[in-house]
Design a protein that fits this description.
2 domains; single chain; two-stranded parallel sheet; about 80 residues
Length: about 80
């Protein structure tokens, strides 16, 4: 199964979990979304901030902005 939109996730999970055989879900994701477990201490994300800050690309800037928004939403006040 291929999932290209967040609206398709529930259906894909339901179909996969009700299948009578192993099922693979291929999720197409935004490359600007950093893969980071939620609620990590700053010490664990500091290197990610540093690396994304060195990327002088649109993708790197989008990823850095998303990471800052996500951390703020989680209640963290990370240094700029």
């Amino acid at each position: 199964m291929r999932v290209t939109s967040p609206t398709e996730v529930d259906t894909a999970w339901n179909e996969a979990l009700s299948a009578d055989r192993p099922t693979l879900i291929e999720a197409i994701v935004d490359p600007a979304i950093p893969l980071l477990p939620p609620a990590q201490p700053y010490e664990k994300v500091a290197t990610m901030y540093e690396a994304l800050g060195r990327e002088d690309t649109d993708l790197g800037r989008r990823a850095l902005a998303h990471l800052r928004r996500e951390r703020a939403t989680e209640g963290f006040d990370d240094p700029q």
